[in-house]
Amino acid sequence: MNFDYSEKIIDLQERLTSFFDTHILPVEREVNEFLYHPDNLWKPWPGMESLKQKAKEEGLWNLFLPKAYGDLSPGLSNLEYAPLAEIMGRILWSSEIFNCSAPDTGNMEVLAKYGSKDQQKQWLAPLLNGDVRSAFLMTEPQVASSDATNIETSIVSDGNDYVINGRKWWSSGGMNPNCKIAIVMGKTDPQAPRHQQQSMVLVPMNSPGLKIIRPLSVFGFYDSPEGHAEILLENVRVPKENLILGEGRGFEIAQGRLGPGRIHHCMRLIGMAQRSLELMSKRASERIAFGKTFKDYSSIRQEIAKSQCDIEQARLLTLSAADKMDKFGNKLSKDLIAMIKVVAPKMALKVIDRAMQIHGGKGVGPDTPLAHFFVAARMLRLADGPDEVHMYQLGKSIIKKYAE
Amino acid sequence: MNFDYSEKIIDLQERLTSFFDTHILPVEREVNEFLYHPDNLWKPWPGMESLKQKAKEEGLWNLFLPKAYGDLSPGLSNLEYAPLAEIMGRILWSSEIFNCSAPDTGNMEVLAKYGSKDQQKQWLAPLLNGDVRSAFLMTEPQVASSDATNIETSIVSDGNDYVINGRKWWSSGGMNPNCKIAIVMGKTDPQAPRHQQQSMVLVPMNSPGLKIIRPLSVFGFYDSPEGHAEILLENVRVPKENLILGEGRGFEIAQGRLGPGRIHHCMRLIGMAQRSLELMSKRASERIAFGKTFKDYSSIRQEIAKSQCDIEQARLLTLSAADKMDKFGNKLSKDLIAMIKVVAPKMALKVIDRAMQIHGGKGVGPDTPLAHFFVAARMLRLADGPDEVHMYQLGKSIIKKYAE
Amino acid sequence: MNFDYSEKIIDLQERLTSFFDTHILPVEREVNEFLYHPDNLWKPWPGMESLKQKAKEEGLWNLFLPKAYGDLSPGLSNLEYAPLAEIMGRILWSSEIFNCSAPDTGNMEVLAKYGSKDQQKQWLAPLLNGDVRSAFLMTEPQVASSDATNIETSIVSDGNDYVINGRKWWSSGGMNPNCKIAIVMGKTDPQAPRHQQQSMVLVPMNSPGLKIIRPLSVFGFYDSPEGHAEILLENVRVPKENLILGEGRGFEIAQGRLGPGRIHHCMRLIGMAQRSLELMSKRASERIAFGKTFKDYSSIRQEIAKSQCDIEQARLLTLSAADKMDKFGNKLSKDLIAMIKVVAPKMALKVIDRAMQIHGGKGVGPDTPLAHFFVAARMLRLADGPDEVHMYQLGKSIIKKYAE
Amino acid sequence: MNFDYSEKIIDLQERLTSFFDTHILPVEREVNEFLYHPDNLWKPWPGMESLKQKAKEEGLWNLFLPKAYGDLSPGLSNLEYAPLAEIMGRILWSSEIFNCSAPDTGNMEVLAKYGSKDQQKQWLAPLLNGDVRSAFLMTEPQVASSDATNIETSIVSDGNDYVINGRKWWSSGGMNPNCKIAIVMGKTDPQAPRHQQQSMVLVPMNSPGLKIIRPLSVFGFYDSPEGHAEILLENVRVPKENLILGEGRGFEIAQGRLGPGRIHHCMRLIGMAQRSLELMSKRASERIAFGKTFKDYSSIRQEIAKSQCDIEQARLLTLSAADKMDKFGNKLSKDLIAMIKVVAPKMALKVIDRAMQIHGGKGVGPDTPLAHFFVAARMLRLADGPDEVHMYQLGKSIIKKYAE
């Protein structure tokens, strides 16, 4: 492993940090007040588009995309993107400014990697340009969807069309008025071998029969304007050209989609934890109780010391996973990717929780990013597969490795 | 310790459980949908008053109150009330139905114990009758309020009045349109000995100069219709008759107020945890992944086994604290009360978190009580003093006990 | 539950405590130095017999035995014995003084409950009198013995004899020169239904063919003079009269044997933890580093506060299990017994570990009981079934209870 | 950070691993049986010297030493040595074979860095050659020695001599019959500024007045033949030439000594944890209970998955600390060194404990390295400063960094 950053990356880190300090941090409070206000549900913050424009102009755009697309992306490796994703993790709504927010990133990667020319023209181009947003419809309420073979949504061939029926939820981004396209995972052939039953199709959000049932809150947050939608698909009809890659290849696409996404999630979690550590350090140096500043209590120093240890370890592990993915690909890195997926959310939860506690009532309220960080991190112990599923596979793989 | 319940309590438990099963559980989903809907902020659920009436008629009213008030309360001991509070903990908004919800319970106790005849007539009577709600204004944003000597709100004598200035927050219940009266903690004499500077006064919510700045969200929840208010007090003027007990006795009242309240909080937390355990047991027996029902995974059985161990221990500890309070009073029970205040929220968080994880996405969303339970429990690691403060005192007391 | 102690028990607690203070604590250091000295392996401490005599004279003898045997035991219930076992837990080698040490207690119960008149006369009488010691040969090195159906030792009928072949280990007490009799678990009929294959037979330690292979150390301790023996049984022959209860009833006896034994173990663990808490409190009040006495560090107070919470909860849980066993028997108490078996050793390990840490180097060395406590507690996460087995059964039982 | 190993290191790793497989693992059981046998206390295993000779011949000698000494050491950086120390960690007594065992390594570094020509000739040369062993006399029973200013041993100038009085304990290596020299920390000037009171002197073990009081056991282990000695120094007289570096510079030497030693300790801990993981993986694939192989229990897979995550994170953190020390020196790396000192022992304890549990009774006995690993790791939460001291400094440093 070589984690030394190249000059290009150091430059990008500096420019991204400077963009943050200049354009984002100063409006953080204003944006939060807008987004959290019940009257503004599903309305994007009005200043977002101009910030996106600025980021695009400064070349801080589509940083997540491993392949260069003209001026639209610098084509960074996973290891190169990692420290940039960490910076974006410091404010939950900031990734969009750089067109680097989930689930668009994963969807763009899928289209870039597996999409047909037409699909790329119609959907990848506007996504890469930040003109539209997208959703990914995978999880279903009735079944344990972490076992992808449980998925029940049907995709049935009918002439030149596919007809889709099913119920999806936790479709993040689906409430956004600017969300125009969804990638839907379903079964084209329930009789095929377990991992060849699934397919993915592109479904425009305005398709007849696609009905948004309700937004789901996560803890009490709606995550406006993206939201998490419950969606009913009733005889939704799309042309066969909307199939991605081929029938029965949905599982394969899902696998390919997940690796980089997990690196992104984990690095953002590390950014959240890092910022939480900084916030609690500041708080500890200011607040006084029982005649002593917080920082002089040994227990508070311990919380902070442990947090630093936890963060730095998770950071190194994630970087090493990114490095391995760059060098050996998703498949050979699967154990490491499982490891960071298990480690990073739990680590972040611990650190954020300590920071909340040191902030007292303020820590669970709207005046710090901590409570929302916590909820975002908690969700990531479930999203893209619950910890238990990753450990089940990882444990098996390690036992095999050492028992032989 | 004798935890055997008398026939009277067994009867009350059965009647309360039956009331729950008949009148509350069937409307749980409907009430939640109402309360969580952004359009209904600060509106009480319309069916609440008729449920309160029914509870009153059935003698399930003011159960928390250790002293009998005519027909209005059965006068239970802490140990007798504990199992009833556990039942109420199973649904967050259910305590109000029995006129047993914080902060009214604490406020009513203060008025019953320390209030003047006039204060009791004017404020205790309608509170006991469930006609109005109340708030308790203690915590301040600028200072670590767990150290009560930090409190900055001033209560200045001016002729026949007190003039109050300060900023309070986390004033739970303060957003409720039916909240009519607040007990405010402030300093009447900042030069007096540390624990005689504080006083408590009754301040009607419609007093000129009392301004609700905003509702605070806890994680994303607003806890409508009660809410948690940030309140500005600018030259708020109340007659001297509104002083409770006497100048400089605020700290003493606060101490007396806390013991029973902590028992109530802890027993409700145990109810939350118990219900979470039941929910995850059900889920484990239904859900299937990778060819096995959840309940056949040894790791899931462990989560459930541990939860049962955690709950039962915290329950016994809380009962033993209630028993000791009944027999020896607040002061001699202070170590045990500190112990349950540290133990119960953490225990509940662990159990609820396991239940969420087993529920997958559903566990963090609005369709189970788990996410809201979690937030309520998390807040209780801070409310009424953060864990750290309790452990600081408790540790000192134990060292003293054993080192001598 | 009613945990109030009767006057009889309060009197026994006081007399036992006084015996401890007068006769045991003053020689603790001397005894430890004797027992830990490599030259004294397998030699009982010379003063032991006179202490036993004294305890017997004072009626502090066979306290564990639920049934009264003439003058030899007061016939206490589990709940009554529990606080006495806690006191004995404060010094590892003290139980023997009161003829209350494992595995003799379990063996005596088996003989009292299931033994024939002859077996009782020959073996129970001298055990109750403290004249001899005994061993229990259950666990086998080749198989996971927590699943009793795995056990491989064969007990084959041959004329008027049984012929026994097998290898046992962790036979606690087996190294003691005064150990004269063993109860051996083996299979009389490997073809019978799973839980009727096993039988228990009495095997004198001097039987030809019974060979002590070696003492096993636990961490580095040999636990002299009792020790933990690895024992080979090669064609060991005993008369059929040595069978206990009947062929195929070994599993049934094992079940009956375990309940009270677990209460004893757990209460002793609580005694270990309690003493560790007292020791660390003393240490915290004496030791100084970086200009502050340990007790003034908030982190040390937290360790102590948490320990008190942990101990008191486990104590109440164990008492409630003892109470339930007394009232409803082993079978209906099995969930609670599993719970304490999982809870108490882990709790003790946490508390002892904190105490070790606060003692610095002294804490892991021979000058405090802490290191040996730790090892004893660690072993109890395995002995009588590892935590995992208890949680596996307990989790199943709870899911069943709540999912129906 | 660049953790890619050079060809030289890859070659050394391979040769060291091969030496292990060929010469060490095959005799592991034999050596353990020898060392653990009470009759062999303080006797080196007879085969040790020939293995040392072999290692020296193969250039696997003094690998820890950052500076090349003729043929006697390859002069590796900390980052280069780290993976080799990890390999040595797999068997507790193996470091000596490569002349890489504590406290000799630290003592040799002190002499190499700060020793006079004469001191180096007389003591460094035989140590580097593996002819003699050494001890480091720092900790004292009466005071919290982690605060070096507490140390009470006096070093008083008297003509051409220093006269030393004090009591030391946990002098590891001090019981070894081949231990010939000790470095003693004491105070030459108790009136000097806090960190200039201390000095270090060389004291031959056969000096009149130096009396070994007793060996200390760690848990039950004596760690023969090195042992941990309690030593009384009564008017021990050494010539002034035995002073290292200068009066009042003891603290400075101690600081310089600690950094690399902590890397070594941590990498060995990682080796212990790694081997424990491998052992439990093997066990999980072999053992059967309740009809299932251990590896098919989800809870066991989780234990193994978590262990892999824990180990890999600690490994990366330690490598990054080694790398930083190599590039920026001890002082600028102090936070990272504190971090690994806190992280690695706790991580190892968790992993080893899981491995023990999966091994059942075997895991706490003498037939696996696990119990001894555990004790070694537990001691390292105290040796070279307890966790609490490191976190106290680390927390302070981080708060300062982020609060400014």
UniProtKB/TrEMBL annotation, chains A, B, C, D:
Keywords: FAD, Flavoprotein, Oxidoreductase
Occurrences of domain Acyl-CoA dehydrogenase/oxidase N-terminal (ranges): 11-131
InterPro entries: Acyl-CoA_dehydrogenase, Acyl-CoA_Oxase/DH_mid-dom, Acyl-CoA_Oxase/DH_mid-dom_sf, AcylCo_DH-like_C, AcylCo_DH/oxidase_C, AcylCoA_DH/ox_N, AcylCoA_DH/ox_N_sf, AcylCoA_DH/oxidase_NM_dom_sf
Boundaries of every Acyl-CoA oxidase/dehydrogenase middle domain copy: 135-235
Cofactor: FAD
Domain Acyl-CoA dehydrogenase/oxidase C-terminal: 248-398
Keyword Electron transport: no
Pfam family, one: Acyl-CoA_dh_1
Family affiliation: Belongs to the acyl-CoA dehydrogenase family.
Subunit composition and interactions: Homodimer.
This protein's name: Acyl-CoA dehydrogenase family protein
